[in-house]
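Researcher: Re-running this chain for the archive, since the previous output was lost when a drive failed. Same request as before.
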Amino acid sequence: MAGGEEEEQQLLSVYDGHVINNYEDDIRSINGINDFAKEFFIESKKLWYLAFPAIFTSFCQYGLITITQIFAGSLGTTQLAAVSVENSIISGFPFGMMFGLSSALETYCGQAYGANQSEMLGTYMQRSWVILNAMAITAVPLFIFATPVLKFLGQTASLSREAGNFALWMIPQQFAYASMLPSTKFLQAQSKVMSIAVIAAVALCLHAFFSWFLILNLGWGLVGAAMVLDGSWWFIAMAQFLYIISGACGETWSGFSWKAFQNLWGFLKISVASAVMMCLEVWYIMALTLFAGYLEDAEISIDAFSICMNILGWACMVAIGLNVASSVRVSNELGSGHPRKARFSVLVIGVSSLLIGLFFTLILIVSRKRYSGIFTNSSEVEKLVEELTPLVGLSMVFTNVQYALSGVAIGAGWQTTVAYMSTVCYFVFGIPSGALMAYKFKMGVQGIWYGMVLGLCLQICLLLWMIWTTNWTKECYAAEERLRQWRGETLAEETD
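Model: Regenerated structure tokens:
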């Protein structure tokens, strides 16, 4: 421990006293259990101040498509299937890419805000707007040719036609995403999470009313559903933008700037790495679901797998909140030059995510004989779901921890490294292991799920190893140098 302290002091002396002053204000020494408990409680308050509104926002935004599907289901099974297919395949792919691209802002805006470089946050957000709108434009042909794309993927002609028509009306939604996602990350970096949550809640209420009014009352069908869904996302995007320019964000927004078009290539590189890192997890689940469809009892296997994934998906709403909170806390502390606070925040994040995962698992195990009945009347499916429940519970623990640690990686700017790591864990190790157990060893859908758990476990182990071996003082320097580069400065210019 003494050697580590000495190394930190030696490293700190390199930087002209800038970080030394912050280091003196860093977390005080912890002596005994009482001190640890007090500091843990203080950090937990900061973490959950961010996590609770983020979780609430995730539920509200997830509810938009859920309400649309409910009203579409009242029109008929084909309409319900059309909305589901369009959302998961046609809209799902570009949304996943844009969500990943925007997560680069969690690194840059979070670290800039921690370093009191408030004026840079608006520039970063505008750069992200440029990149995401370009992504939305390139995705337009996918929506225009959605019908033949869906036919090529094996969907029926009637479903492909209905989903294709719905997709045409959903093009404006992509540009709402391109505006909304960067502004969300911009506000989260400043801990202005309550404003995001309020806007999401209002959007959900308006969405429910206008869905009823246009779809059922006026009888506009899927066209009405599309218009309401487009309108809801644009409401969120415009409400967040108006909140930003109203002056509520102070110096972080100083108006539009041509600087948004500078250094786009460098900004794009970490944005793409962020997108790959986020999308690999989605593609991992899609690949495993596809393998489930090749089993002997494919219908029963897919039904059971889908029910378990649905339960895991709702638990992921909490994990997403932890992901947001951990990335903001770590990026803010690194930007502020507080290595010990960043390190302690990681500890609190890890312990909190583990406890929440264990809590959800306990609830799931207790209700293992009953919860599958909500989704199916098939005794065979219910039996298979019950057999999968211990694995689902283990997945909840791993998923909560993995999302929290991924937030740490985003906050520290490790997206490129984690993207390579995810590729190995999921596609070199997880999927082949699951396929081998499912087909070679005749373990069926349980074998596929074992493969998913093994991939997650390996990912967590590697993330823990990265965090354990990280010199957080050097990460503060890396954050400082990264911000200097985006301001067009170099370390030598600063110290001369």
